[in-house]
Amino acid sequence: MSKLKDNFEKQTIPALMTEFEIKNRMAVPKLQKVVVNVGVGRNRLIPKYLEKVSENLAAITGQKPVLRRSRKAISGFKVRENDPVGLCVTLRGVKMYDFVEKLANITLPRLRDFRGLEPKCIDKRGNYTLGIKEQIIFPEITHEKAELIHGLEVTMVINSDSVKISQKILEYLGFPFVGKKILSAKEQNG
Protein backbone atom coordinates (compact mmCIF):
# COMPACT_ATOMS: atom_id res chain seq x y z
CA MET A 1 0.00 0.00 0.00
CA SER A 2 1.17 3.52 -0.77
CA LYS A 3 2.50 5.54 2.16
CA LEU A 4 0.23 8.46 1.27
CA LYS A 5 -2.86 6.22 1.01
CA ASP A 6 -2.06 4.61 4.36
CA ASN A 7 -1.58 8.06 5.92
CA PHE A 8 -4.88 9.25 4.39
CA GLU A 9 -6.80 6.27 5.77
CA LYS A 10 -5.32 6.38 9.28
CA GLN A 11 -4.84 10.11 9.97
CA THR A 12 -6.64 12.31 7.43
CA ILE A 13 -10.08 10.67 7.54
CA PRO A 14 -10.38 10.90 11.38
CA ALA A 15 -9.13 14.50 11.27
CA LEU A 16 -11.73 15.43 8.62
CA MET A 17 -14.47 13.67 10.62
CA THR A 18 -13.75 15.76 13.71
CA GLU A 19 -13.13 19.04 11.85
CA PHE A 20 -16.28 18.94 9.71
CA GLU A 21 -18.42 16.95 12.18
CA ILE A 22 -19.00 13.97 9.88
CA LYS A 23 -20.37 11.02 11.83
CA ASN A 24 -19.99 8.22 9.31
CA ARG A 25 -16.48 7.30 8.11
CA MET A 26 -17.84 6.33 4.68
CA ALA A 27 -19.36 9.81 4.21
CA VAL A 28 -15.95 11.51 4.32
CA PRO A 29 -15.08 12.89 0.85
CA LYS A 30 -12.08 11.26 -0.80
CA LEU A 31 -9.87 11.63 -3.83
CA GLN A 32 -11.60 9.46 -6.45
CA LYS A 33 -9.32 9.78 -9.48
CA VAL A 34 -6.65 11.90 -11.11
CA VAL A 35 -7.01 12.73 -14.80
CA VAL A 36 -3.97 13.91 -16.78
CA ASN A 37 -4.71 15.53 -20.18
CA VAL A 38 -2.50 16.80 -22.98
CA GLY A 39 -3.99 18.67 -25.93
CA VAL A 40 -2.09 18.22 -29.19
CA GLY A 41 -3.43 21.31 -30.98
CA ARG A 42 -1.98 22.15 -34.39
CA ASN A 43 0.45 19.24 -34.33
CA ARG A 44 -2.34 16.66 -34.29
CA LEU A 45 -1.62 15.41 -37.80
CA ILE A 46 2.08 14.74 -37.16
CA PRO A 47 2.34 11.06 -36.08
CA LYS A 48 5.82 11.47 -34.55
CA TYR A 49 4.55 14.32 -32.34
CA LEU A 50 1.68 12.18 -31.04
CA GLU A 51 4.09 9.32 -30.40
CA LYS A 52 6.53 11.52 -28.40
CA VAL A 53 3.74 13.10 -26.33
CA SER A 54 2.35 9.62 -25.65
CA GLU A 55 5.79 8.40 -24.50
CA ASN A 56 6.21 11.43 -22.22
CA LEU A 57 2.77 10.98 -20.68
CA ALA A 58 3.35 7.25 -20.17
CA ALA A 59 6.67 7.98 -18.43
CA ILE A 60 5.10 10.62 -16.18
CA THR A 61 2.03 8.63 -15.12
CA GLY A 62 3.21 5.02 -15.45
CA GLN A 63 0.19 4.17 -17.56
CA LYS A 64 -0.44 4.15 -21.32
CA PRO A 65 -2.46 7.19 -22.47
CA VAL A 66 -5.65 6.99 -24.51
CA LEU A 67 -5.89 8.97 -27.75
CA ARG A 68 -8.94 11.25 -27.73
CA ARG A 69 -10.57 12.10 -31.06
CA SER A 70 -12.94 14.91 -32.06
CA ARG A 71 -16.61 14.00 -32.14
CA LYS A 72 -17.57 16.47 -34.82
CA ALA A 73 -15.95 18.78 -37.37
CA ILE A 74 -15.30 22.41 -36.38
CA SER A 75 -14.29 24.49 -39.39
CA GLY A 76 -13.11 27.47 -37.31
CA PHE A 77 -10.41 25.31 -35.73
CA LYS A 78 -9.77 23.30 -38.92
CA VAL A 79 -10.70 20.10 -37.10
CA ARG A 80 -12.40 17.25 -38.91
CA GLU A 81 -14.44 14.50 -37.35
CA ASN A 82 -12.23 11.78 -35.77
CA ASP A 83 -9.07 13.95 -35.82
CA PRO A 84 -6.85 13.35 -32.76
CA VAL A 85 -7.24 16.25 -30.30
CA GLY A 86 -5.48 15.02 -27.18
CA LEU A 87 -4.20 12.27 -24.93
CA CYS A 88 -5.67 11.31 -21.58
CA VAL A 89 -4.71 9.14 -18.61
CA THR A 90 -7.02 8.33 -15.68
CA LEU A 91 -5.28 7.17 -12.51
CA ARG A 92 -7.04 5.38 -9.65
CA GLY A 93 -6.00 3.43 -6.58
CA VAL A 94 -2.34 3.01 -5.64
CA LYS A 95 -1.05 4.58 -8.89
CA MET A 96 -3.16 7.66 -8.17
CA TYR A 97 -1.74 8.10 -4.66
CA ASP A 98 1.82 7.52 -5.91
CA PHE A 99 1.33 10.17 -8.62
CA VAL A 100 -0.19 12.66 -6.15
CA GLU A 101 2.68 12.11 -3.71
CA LYS A 102 5.24 12.65 -6.49
CA LEU A 103 3.39 15.75 -7.72
CA ALA A 104 3.14 17.36 -4.28
CA ASN A 105 6.58 16.50 -2.92
CA ILE A 106 8.90 16.39 -5.94
CA THR A 107 7.40 18.04 -9.01
CA LEU A 108 5.74 21.21 -7.73
CA PRO A 109 8.76 22.33 -5.66
CA ARG A 110 10.80 22.13 -8.91
CA LEU A 111 8.69 24.89 -10.47
CA ARG A 112 10.44 28.21 -10.80
CA ASP A 113 9.09 30.87 -8.39
CA PHE A 114 6.58 28.46 -6.86
CA ARG A 115 4.65 30.17 -4.07
CA GLY A 116 1.82 27.66 -3.67
CA LEU A 117 -1.35 26.62 -5.43
CA GLU A 118 -4.29 28.94 -6.01
CA PRO A 119 -7.38 27.88 -4.02
CA LYS A 120 -9.64 29.58 -6.60
CA CYS A 121 -8.90 26.70 -9.03
CA ILE A 122 -11.26 24.46 -7.04
CA ASP A 123 -14.58 24.30 -8.89
CA LYS A 124 -18.08 24.15 -7.36
CA ARG A 125 -18.04 20.35 -7.32
CA GLY A 126 -14.81 20.23 -5.32
CA ASN A 127 -12.43 19.23 -8.13
CA TYR A 128 -9.01 20.85 -8.47
CA THR A 129 -7.45 21.50 -11.88
CA LEU A 130 -3.78 22.38 -12.23
CA GLY A 131 -2.19 23.48 -15.49
CA ILE A 132 1.51 22.77 -16.04
CA LYS A 133 3.26 24.62 -18.88
CA GLU A 134 6.25 22.30 -19.34
CA GLN A 135 6.45 18.55 -18.85
CA ILE A 136 10.17 18.73 -18.08
CA ILE A 137 9.53 19.55 -14.41
CA PHE A 138 8.73 15.87 -13.86
CA PRO A 139 11.79 13.82 -12.84
CA GLU A 140 11.10 11.13 -15.47
CA ILE A 141 11.66 13.58 -18.33
CA THR A 142 15.27 14.72 -18.68
CA HIS A 143 16.28 17.91 -20.49
CA GLU A 144 18.50 15.93 -22.85
CA LYS A 145 15.70 13.56 -23.91
CA ALA A 146 13.04 16.25 -24.25
CA GLU A 147 12.85 16.95 -27.97
CA LEU A 148 9.64 18.92 -27.60
CA ILE A 149 8.07 20.91 -24.82
CA HIS A 150 4.35 20.61 -24.16
CA GLY A 151 2.01 21.39 -21.31
CA LEU A 152 -0.44 19.20 -19.48
CA GLU A 153 -3.43 19.50 -17.22
CA VAL A 154 -3.94 17.56 -14.00
CA THR A 155 -7.45 17.30 -12.54
CA MET A 156 -7.97 15.81 -9.09
CA VAL A 157 -11.56 14.62 -8.74
CA ILE A 158 -12.86 14.74 -5.16
CA ASN A 159 -16.39 13.58 -4.29
CA SER A 160 -17.22 16.72 -2.32
CA ASP A 161 -19.57 19.60 -3.02
CA SER A 162 -17.70 21.89 -0.63
CA VAL A 163 -14.71 23.95 -1.73
CA LYS A 164 -13.53 24.14 1.89
CA ILE A 165 -13.47 20.36 2.37
CA SER A 166 -11.72 19.84 -0.98
CA GLN A 167 -9.03 22.36 -0.09
CA LYS A 168 -8.52 20.70 3.29
CA ILE A 169 -8.19 17.26 1.65
CA LEU A 170 -5.59 18.62 -0.78
CA GLU A 171 -3.70 20.23 2.11
CA TYR A 172 -3.65 16.89 3.93
CA LEU A 173 -2.36 15.25 0.74
CA GLY A 174 0.62 17.63 0.83
CA PHE A 175 -0.34 20.41 -1.60
CA PRO A 176 0.68 23.87 -0.37
CA PHE A 177 -1.73 26.73 -1.07
CA VAL A 178 -0.93 30.43 -1.47
CA GLY A 179 -0.82 32.17 1.90
CA LYS A 180 0.02 29.02 3.83
CA LYS A 181 3.51 28.32 5.11
CA ILE A 182 5.24 25.75 2.89
CA LEU A 183 6.74 23.07 5.14
CA SER A 184 9.78 21.03 4.27
CA ALA A 185 9.57 17.23 4.28
CA LYS A 186 11.34 17.16 7.68
CA GLU A 187 8.80 19.54 9.24
CA GLN A 188 5.83 17.59 7.81
CA ASN A 189 7.02 14.26 9.24
CA GLY A 190 7.68 15.47 12.67
What labels describe this entry?
190 residues, five-stranded antiparallel sheet, 50s Ribosomal Protein L5, Chain: A, globular, alpha+beta
Topology overview:
Blueprint lengths: L2 H17 L11 E9 L7 H15 L4 E4 L14 E8 L1 H15 L20 E5 L19 E7 L4 H10 L12 H5 L1
Antiparallel strand pairs: 1-3, 1-5, 2-3, 4-5
Number of domains: 1
Helix content: 25-40%
C-alpha Rg (nearest Å): 18 Å
Strand order of the largest sheet: 2-3-1-5-4
The CATH superfamily appears as: Ribosomal protein L5
SSE run: HEHEEHEEHH
> Per CATH, what is the topology?
50s Ribosomal Protein L5, Chain: A
**What distance separates the N and C termini?**
21 Å
Beta-strand content: 15-25%
**Number of alpha- plus pi-helical segments:** 5
* Top CATH class: Alpha Beta
Oligomer: single chain
Can you name the CATH architecture? Answer: 2-Layer Sandwich
**Global outline:** globular
What can you tell me about this protein's structure?
The longest helix is centred in the first third of the chain and has 17 residues, at 3-19. This protein is α+β, with helices and mostly antiparallel strands and 190 residues long. It is 33% helix and 17% strand. It has a single domain, classed as Ribosomal protein L5 (50s Ribosomal Protein L5, Chain: A, 2-Layer Sandwich), CATH 3.30.1440. It has a five-stranded antiparallel β-sheet.
